[in-house]
Amino acid sequence: MTDQVTHKGVIIYGPTASGKSDLALGLARRLVTQGRPAEIVSADAFQVFCRMNIGTAKASPEARLEVPHHLIDVRDPHDHAPFTVEDWASLAEEAIDSARRRGAVPIVVGGTSLYVQTLLFGMFRGPPADPGLRASLSGLGHAELRQRLLRADPAAAERIHPADLRRTVRALEVFHLTGRPISSLQTQWGAGAPRSDLRLFVLSQETPELNGRINARVRAMMERGLLEEVRGLLAHGPLSPQASQAIGYRQLAQHLANPAACPLGDAVERIKIETRRFAKSQRTWSRRFIGSVPGAMTISAGDQGRLLEATGMAAHK
């Protein structure tokens, strides 16, 4: 068995609450028992924010001491400067390369679809900026820009915070220049074949079982103190447009802002509903990945042994 195979690495993608983080940690532990260190790279858009721990289901401090984790706690949630897909991809490549230099197997794990797509296929660049068009769009009021985006690209409007002027203008710019919504362009694969140094594994779980796990996870997060975590974050000022969109944080922030209009019980139910909706979107991406990435394999959360064998990392003499 060559070092090249040993250090190839894996990506574990799946819907929220499917067990991918536990699978990644279990895989890392098994590799360590075989004398091969492993490091985990988070592909989660909200685990990048410091102090957003419970609602993003970050690995425990003990687990992070046991196995090195990267791309967690790299941005303050009150920093309103955007943290882009390109920012994440650059840091992820650096983490993967540094892990390999240390002789460790990189394990990328997460459910942020665009992060995984970018890691596999490269960045969606889009058309170059048009300064005149940008100036014209920027001169419109926030309300008008929002209405135009809702008409031109409802999917992007759902993802982009109303206060995020830069991303709103860029989405409208792409639509004007290409005649196509940026949301549809961002879901297309990059040119050429996906990278071959990371093997993709997609977690599969039946919808009823996954929905039950999601509901149980939300209850557990509330019991662990998610409301207090959100209250503590807001005590230091408003969250950034990106951080404020995290499921759980958004609904509880609305409850804290106006408990009469948004009772706690209603907020918790909305968290469950939005998480299930998000998981449905992730399952759609799972099918795209399986159909478009050669060698991609569907596994269950208990398939550590199969994962080891499929990557050539099973114990060997």
Task: Give a written overview of the molecule.
The chain is 52% helix and 8% strand. Strands 3-2-4-1-5-6 form a six-stranded parallel beta sheet, with helices on both faces. Residues 1-7 have low confidence and may be disordered. It has helices spanning 3-6, 20-33, 61-66, 85-101, 113-121, 131-138, 142-152, 154-159, 165-178, 182-186, 207-224, 226-234, 249-257, 264-292, 304-310; strands spanning 10-13, 38-42, 69-70, 105-110, 199-203, 297-299. It folds into two domains: 3-123 and 195-310, P-loop containing nucleotide triphosphate hydrolases (Rossmann fold, 3-Layer(aba) Sandwich); 131-186, Histone, subunit A. With 317 residues, the protein is of the alpha/beta class.
